[in-house]
Amino acid sequence: MKKLFALLLALALVAAACGGDDATTTTDDAVDTGGDATTTTVAASGDMETIRLVVNPWTASRLNALVAKIIIEKELGNPVELVDVNENDAMFTGLADGDLDAVLEIWPSGVTEAEQSYFADGSAVNIGDLGTVGKIGWFVPSYVIDEHPELATWEGFKDPALAALFATAETGDDGRFLGTDPSYSQYDEQIIANLDLPFQVQFSGSEPATVAEVEARVTAGEPIVLYWWTPTAAVSMFDLVNVELPAYTDDCAASQASGDGGVDCDYPEDVIYKAASGKLQDKDAAVFTFLSNFTITTEDQLSMLPPVEIDGDDPVAVAQKWVDDNESVWSAWLP
User: Fold this and answer.
1) pLDDT tens string 259-268
2) Which of 104, 108, 117, 105 is nearest to 69 (CA)?
3) Which overall architecture, per CATH, does domain 30-134+270-333 show?
Protein backbone atom coordinates (compact mmCIF):
# COMPACT_ATOMS: atom_id res chain seq x y z
CA MET A 1 0.00 0.00 0.00
CA LYS A 2 2.83 2.40 0.82
CA LYS A 3 4.44 1.61 -2.55
CA LEU A 4 1.16 2.29 -4.37
CA PHE A 5 0.73 5.60 -2.51
CA ALA A 6 4.27 6.63 -3.36
CA LEU A 7 3.74 5.79 -7.04
CA LEU A 8 0.51 7.81 -7.20
CA LEU A 9 2.18 10.76 -5.47
CA ALA A 10 5.05 10.69 -7.94
CA LEU A 11 2.69 10.61 -10.92
CA ALA A 12 0.72 13.57 -9.49
CA LEU A 13 3.89 15.63 -9.07
CA VAL A 14 4.99 14.90 -12.64
CA ALA A 15 1.56 15.90 -13.99
CA ALA A 16 1.61 19.16 -12.03
CA ALA A 17 5.09 20.00 -13.28
CA CYS A 18 4.17 19.32 -16.91
CA GLY A 19 0.99 21.38 -16.63
CA GLY A 20 2.91 24.34 -15.15
CA ASP A 21 5.19 24.60 -18.19
CA ASP A 22 2.30 25.47 -20.51
CA ALA A 23 0.14 27.46 -18.11
CA THR A 24 -0.98 30.91 -19.19
CA THR A 25 -3.30 33.35 -17.51
CA THR A 26 -6.08 34.82 -19.61
CA THR A 27 -7.39 38.13 -18.35
CA ASP A 28 -10.31 40.28 -19.35
CA ASP A 29 -8.76 43.74 -19.22
CA ALA A 30 -11.23 46.65 -19.16
CA VAL A 31 -9.64 49.68 -20.83
CA ASP A 32 -10.75 53.13 -19.71
CA THR A 33 -11.38 54.97 -22.97
CA GLY A 34 -12.78 58.06 -21.32
CA GLY A 35 -16.28 56.76 -22.03
CA ASP A 36 -17.80 53.30 -21.86
CA ALA A 37 -15.38 50.58 -20.76
CA THR A 38 -14.39 48.11 -23.47
CA THR A 39 -13.26 44.61 -22.56
CA THR A 40 -10.42 43.08 -24.51
CA THR A 41 -9.37 39.47 -23.87
CA VAL A 42 -5.64 38.90 -23.99
CA ALA A 43 -3.36 36.04 -23.08
CA ALA A 44 -0.60 37.04 -20.66
CA SER A 45 1.78 35.00 -18.57
CA GLY A 46 0.96 35.10 -14.89
CA ASP A 47 4.54 35.92 -13.91
CA MET A 48 5.00 38.86 -16.31
CA GLU A 49 5.32 42.38 -14.91
CA THR A 50 2.32 44.70 -15.29
CA ILE A 51 3.25 47.74 -17.38
CA ARG A 52 1.60 51.04 -16.45
CA LEU A 53 1.36 53.55 -19.33
CA VAL A 54 0.36 57.19 -18.87
CA VAL A 55 -2.69 58.53 -20.69
CA ASN A 56 -2.78 62.33 -20.80
CA PRO A 57 -6.11 64.14 -21.23
CA TRP A 58 -6.12 64.36 -25.02
CA THR A 59 -7.18 61.89 -27.70
CA ALA A 60 -3.82 61.27 -29.38
CA SER A 61 -2.21 60.30 -26.08
CA ARG A 62 -4.91 57.70 -25.45
CA LEU A 63 -4.58 56.27 -28.95
CA ASN A 64 -0.79 55.99 -28.65
CA ALA A 65 -1.13 54.13 -25.35
CA LEU A 66 -3.85 51.83 -26.69
CA VAL A 67 -1.71 50.84 -29.69
CA ALA A 68 1.21 50.07 -27.37
CA LYS A 69 -1.05 48.13 -24.98
CA ILE A 70 -2.49 45.92 -27.71
CA ILE A 71 0.93 44.98 -29.07
CA ILE A 72 2.65 44.50 -25.70
CA GLU A 73 -0.08 42.22 -24.39
CA LYS A 74 -0.26 40.14 -27.55
CA GLU A 75 3.42 39.91 -28.46
CA LEU A 76 5.31 40.30 -25.17
CA GLY A 77 2.75 38.83 -22.75
CA ASN A 78 2.76 41.64 -20.19
CA PRO A 79 -0.56 42.90 -18.86
CA VAL A 80 -0.82 46.65 -19.46
CA GLU A 81 -2.70 49.16 -17.32
CA LEU A 82 -3.55 52.58 -18.71
CA VAL A 83 -3.38 55.31 -16.07
CA ASP A 84 -5.07 58.68 -16.62
CA VAL A 85 -2.74 61.45 -15.43
CA ASN A 86 -3.71 65.11 -15.76
CA GLU A 87 -0.74 66.84 -14.15
CA ASN A 88 2.91 66.82 -15.18
CA ASP A 89 4.00 66.80 -11.53
CA ALA A 90 2.14 63.55 -10.89
CA MET A 91 3.45 62.08 -14.12
CA PHE A 92 7.10 62.77 -13.39
CA THR A 93 6.96 61.73 -9.75
CA GLY A 94 5.21 58.52 -10.85
CA LEU A 95 7.98 57.80 -13.35
CA ALA A 96 10.62 58.58 -10.74
CA ASP A 97 9.28 56.19 -8.12
CA GLY A 98 8.38 53.46 -10.63
CA ASP A 99 4.60 53.64 -10.11
CA LEU A 100 4.35 54.66 -13.78
CA ASP A 101 6.48 52.98 -16.44
CA ALA A 102 6.26 55.23 -19.48
CA VAL A 103 4.55 58.16 -21.18
CA LEU A 104 4.41 58.14 -24.97
CA GLU A 105 3.68 61.80 -25.77
CA ILE A 106 5.63 64.63 -24.15
CA TRP A 107 5.44 68.09 -25.72
CA PRO A 108 8.80 69.78 -25.00
CA SER A 109 7.30 73.27 -24.72
CA GLY A 110 5.38 72.13 -21.64
CA VAL A 111 8.37 70.77 -19.71
CA THR A 112 9.67 73.09 -16.99
CA GLU A 113 13.17 73.40 -15.53
CA ALA A 114 12.00 71.52 -12.43
CA GLU A 115 10.66 68.69 -14.58
CA GLN A 116 13.90 68.55 -16.59
CA SER A 117 15.65 67.64 -13.33
CA TYR A 118 14.06 64.17 -13.48
CA PHE A 119 15.97 63.51 -16.70
CA ALA A 120 19.14 65.01 -15.26
CA ASP A 121 19.17 62.62 -12.28
CA GLY A 122 18.10 59.58 -14.34
CA SER A 123 14.80 58.96 -12.57
CA ALA A 124 13.14 59.55 -15.96
CA VAL A 125 14.71 58.58 -19.29
CA ASN A 126 14.13 60.09 -22.72
CA ILE A 127 13.50 57.04 -24.94
CA GLY A 128 13.37 58.82 -28.27
CA ASP A 129 11.10 60.84 -30.52
CA LEU A 130 7.55 59.61 -31.01
CA GLY A 131 7.63 60.52 -34.71
CA THR A 132 4.95 63.23 -34.47
CA VAL A 133 5.54 66.96 -34.75
CA GLY A 134 3.03 69.18 -32.99
CA LYS A 135 2.22 72.87 -32.88
CA ILE A 136 0.28 74.61 -30.11
CA GLY A 137 -1.02 78.10 -30.76
CA TRP A 138 -3.95 80.46 -31.18
CA PHE A 139 -6.51 79.37 -33.73
CA VAL A 140 -9.55 80.98 -35.37
CA PRO A 141 -11.95 79.66 -38.04
CA SER A 142 -10.89 80.80 -41.50
CA TYR A 143 -14.03 82.92 -41.94
CA VAL A 144 -12.83 85.18 -39.08
CA ILE A 145 -9.76 86.13 -41.13
CA ASP A 146 -11.78 86.33 -44.35
CA GLU A 147 -14.00 88.97 -42.71
CA HIS A 148 -11.21 90.70 -40.75
CA PRO A 149 -7.81 90.06 -42.41
CA GLU A 150 -5.99 92.00 -39.67
CA LEU A 151 -6.83 89.15 -37.26
CA ALA A 152 -4.37 86.89 -39.06
CA THR A 153 -1.74 88.26 -36.66
CA TRP A 154 -1.72 89.23 -33.01
CA GLU A 155 -1.64 92.97 -33.79
CA GLY A 156 -5.25 92.80 -34.96
CA PHE A 157 -6.32 91.59 -31.53
CA LYS A 158 -5.11 94.87 -29.97
CA ASP A 159 -8.06 96.74 -31.50
CA PRO A 160 -10.82 97.00 -28.82
CA ALA A 161 -13.50 97.07 -31.51
CA LEU A 162 -12.28 93.80 -32.99
CA ALA A 163 -11.77 92.27 -29.54
CA ALA A 164 -15.41 93.05 -28.78
CA LEU A 165 -16.43 90.67 -31.58
CA PHE A 166 -15.26 87.84 -29.30
CA ALA A 167 -16.92 89.17 -26.13
CA THR A 168 -19.32 87.18 -23.98
CA ALA A 169 -21.56 88.18 -21.09
CA GLU A 170 -18.79 87.09 -18.71
CA THR A 171 -16.01 89.12 -20.36
CA GLY A 172 -17.87 92.40 -20.82
CA ASP A 173 -16.09 94.68 -23.30
CA ASP A 174 -13.09 92.34 -23.47
CA GLY A 175 -12.91 89.51 -25.92
CA ARG A 176 -13.04 85.91 -24.73
CA PHE A 177 -10.01 83.73 -25.37
CA LEU A 178 -11.11 80.10 -25.03
CA GLY A 179 -8.70 77.91 -23.09
CA THR A 180 -9.16 74.17 -22.86
CA ASP A 181 -8.16 71.99 -19.89
CA PRO A 182 -6.44 74.25 -17.31
CA SER A 183 -3.99 71.44 -16.52
CA TYR A 184 -2.46 71.79 -20.00
CA SER A 185 0.84 73.64 -20.35
CA GLN A 186 -0.40 77.01 -21.60
CA TYR A 187 0.82 80.60 -21.40
CA ASP A 188 -2.12 82.47 -22.90
CA GLU A 189 -2.86 84.62 -19.85
CA GLN A 190 0.79 85.72 -19.86
CA ILE A 191 0.81 86.38 -23.60
CA ILE A 192 -2.37 88.46 -23.36
CA ALA A 193 -1.08 90.48 -20.38
CA ASN A 194 2.41 91.03 -21.80
CA LEU A 195 1.10 92.08 -25.23
CA ASP A 196 -1.58 94.28 -23.59
CA LEU A 197 -4.47 92.67 -25.44
CA PRO A 198 -8.11 93.34 -24.36
CA PHE A 199 -8.96 89.66 -23.82
CA GLN A 200 -9.78 87.36 -20.91
CA VAL A 201 -9.03 83.65 -20.81
CA GLN A 202 -11.92 81.34 -19.99
CA PHE A 203 -11.41 77.58 -19.81
CA SER A 204 -13.80 75.06 -21.33
CA GLY A 205 -12.46 72.37 -18.99
CA SER A 206 -11.65 69.65 -21.52
CA GLU A 207 -10.81 68.83 -25.11
CA PRO A 208 -14.35 67.55 -25.91
CA ALA A 209 -15.91 70.67 -24.34
CA THR A 210 -13.73 72.89 -26.53
CA VAL A 211 -14.67 70.93 -29.66
CA ALA A 212 -18.35 71.28 -28.77
CA GLU A 213 -17.99 75.05 -28.27
CA VAL A 214 -16.09 75.48 -31.55
CA GLU A 215 -18.73 73.46 -33.38
CA ALA A 216 -21.49 75.65 -31.95
CA ARG A 217 -19.70 78.89 -32.90
CA VAL A 218 -18.80 77.68 -36.40
CA THR A 219 -22.35 76.48 -37.02
CA ALA A 220 -23.60 79.94 -36.05
CA GLY A 221 -20.83 81.68 -38.03
CA GLU A 222 -19.66 83.52 -34.90
CA PRO A 223 -16.07 84.58 -34.10
CA ILE A 224 -14.00 82.47 -31.70
CA VAL A 225 -10.30 82.44 -30.80
CA LEU A 226 -8.87 79.56 -28.84
CA TYR A 227 -5.88 77.63 -27.57
CA TRP A 228 -5.55 74.59 -29.82
CA TRP A 229 -2.96 72.42 -31.52
CA THR A 230 -2.20 70.25 -34.49
CA PRO A 231 -2.34 67.38 -35.33
CA THR A 232 -6.03 67.18 -34.42
CA ALA A 233 -9.08 66.34 -36.48
CA ALA A 234 -10.72 69.62 -35.41
CA VAL A 235 -8.25 71.74 -37.41
CA SER A 236 -9.48 70.34 -40.71
CA MET A 237 -13.07 69.74 -39.55
CA PHE A 238 -13.60 73.41 -38.61
CA ASP A 239 -11.00 74.91 -41.01
CA LEU A 240 -9.03 76.44 -38.15
CA VAL A 241 -6.14 78.81 -38.94
CA ASN A 242 -3.12 79.39 -36.71
CA VAL A 243 -2.85 83.08 -35.71
CA GLU A 244 0.62 84.57 -36.07
CA LEU A 245 2.02 85.57 -32.64
CA PRO A 246 5.42 87.23 -31.98
CA ALA A 247 8.22 84.89 -33.00
CA TYR A 248 9.51 82.36 -30.49
CA THR A 249 12.93 83.39 -29.12
CA ASP A 250 15.53 81.99 -26.74
CA ASP A 251 14.57 84.58 -24.11
CA CYS A 252 10.91 83.66 -24.40
CA ALA A 253 11.84 79.97 -24.19
CA ALA A 254 13.72 80.70 -20.96
CA SER A 255 10.64 82.44 -19.56
CA GLN A 256 8.48 79.46 -20.44
CA ALA A 257 10.88 77.03 -18.78
CA SER A 258 11.44 79.11 -15.63
CA GLY A 259 7.83 80.16 -15.12
CA ASP A 260 8.80 83.78 -14.52
CA GLY A 261 5.63 85.14 -16.13
CA GLY A 262 7.41 86.84 -19.02
CA VAL A 263 6.06 84.81 -21.95
CA ASP A 264 5.12 87.14 -24.82
CA CYS A 265 5.72 84.97 -27.89
CA ASP A 266 4.28 82.11 -29.90
CA TYR A 267 4.48 78.48 -28.86
CA PRO A 268 7.33 76.61 -30.54
CA GLU A 269 7.01 73.70 -32.91
CA ASP A 270 7.19 70.59 -30.73
CA VAL A 271 9.09 67.46 -31.73
CA ILE A 272 7.20 65.10 -29.44
CA TYR A 273 9.16 62.50 -27.50
CA LYS A 274 8.63 59.56 -25.13
CA ALA A 275 9.90 58.96 -21.61
CA ALA A 276 10.25 55.94 -19.35
CA SER A 277 10.86 55.42 -15.69
CA GLY A 278 14.52 55.03 -14.86
CA LYS A 279 13.51 51.69 -13.36
CA LEU A 280 11.80 50.22 -16.44
CA GLN A 281 14.86 48.68 -18.10
CA ASP A 282 15.60 46.61 -15.01
CA LYS A 283 11.90 45.81 -14.55
CA ASP A 284 11.42 44.51 -18.10
CA ALA A 285 14.14 45.02 -20.72
CA ALA A 286 11.97 43.72 -23.58
CA VAL A 287 9.22 46.28 -22.92
CA PHE A 288 11.83 49.03 -22.55
CA THR A 289 13.26 48.13 -25.98
CA PHE A 290 9.82 47.95 -27.56
CA LEU A 291 8.78 51.38 -26.23
CA SER A 292 12.11 52.87 -27.31
CA ASN A 293 11.40 51.63 -30.85
CA PHE A 294 7.70 52.60 -30.75
CA THR A 295 6.87 55.23 -33.38
CA ILE A 296 3.60 56.94 -34.29
CA THR A 297 3.91 59.53 -37.06
CA THR A 298 1.83 62.64 -37.62
CA GLU A 299 0.18 60.81 -40.53
CA ASP A 300 -0.61 57.83 -38.25
CA GLN A 301 -2.32 60.13 -35.75
CA LEU A 302 -4.25 61.93 -38.46
CA SER A 303 -5.55 58.57 -39.69
CA MET A 304 -6.83 57.64 -36.21
CA LEU A 305 -8.03 60.97 -34.80
CA PRO A 306 -10.99 61.71 -37.14
CA PRO A 307 -12.78 58.39 -36.46
CA VAL A 308 -12.61 59.12 -32.71
CA GLU A 309 -13.03 62.90 -32.61
CA ILE A 310 -15.47 63.33 -35.51
CA ASP A 311 -17.26 59.99 -35.94
CA GLY A 312 -17.34 59.07 -32.25
CA ASP A 313 -15.79 55.63 -32.79
CA ASP A 314 -14.45 53.60 -29.86
CA PRO A 315 -10.74 54.45 -29.38
CA VAL A 316 -9.96 50.78 -28.64
CA ALA A 317 -11.45 49.71 -31.98
CA VAL A 318 -9.61 52.48 -33.83
CA ALA A 319 -6.28 51.50 -32.24
CA GLN A 320 -6.93 47.83 -32.99
CA LYS A 321 -7.60 48.63 -36.65
CA TRP A 322 -4.30 50.52 -36.87
CA VAL A 323 -2.49 47.52 -35.36
CA ASP A 324 -4.24 45.11 -37.75
CA ASP A 325 -3.36 47.26 -40.76
CA ASN A 326 0.27 47.95 -39.83
CA GLU A 327 1.89 44.69 -38.71
CA SER A 328 4.84 45.28 -41.03
CA VAL A 329 5.49 48.55 -39.17
CA TRP A 330 5.15 47.47 -35.54
CA SER A 331 6.80 44.06 -35.92
CA ALA A 332 10.09 45.94 -36.35
CA TRP A 333 9.65 47.47 -32.87
CA LEU A 334 9.72 44.08 -31.12
CA PRO A 335 12.96 43.09 -29.34
Assistant:
1) 899 999 999 9
2) 104
3) 3-Layer(aba) Sandwich (3.40)
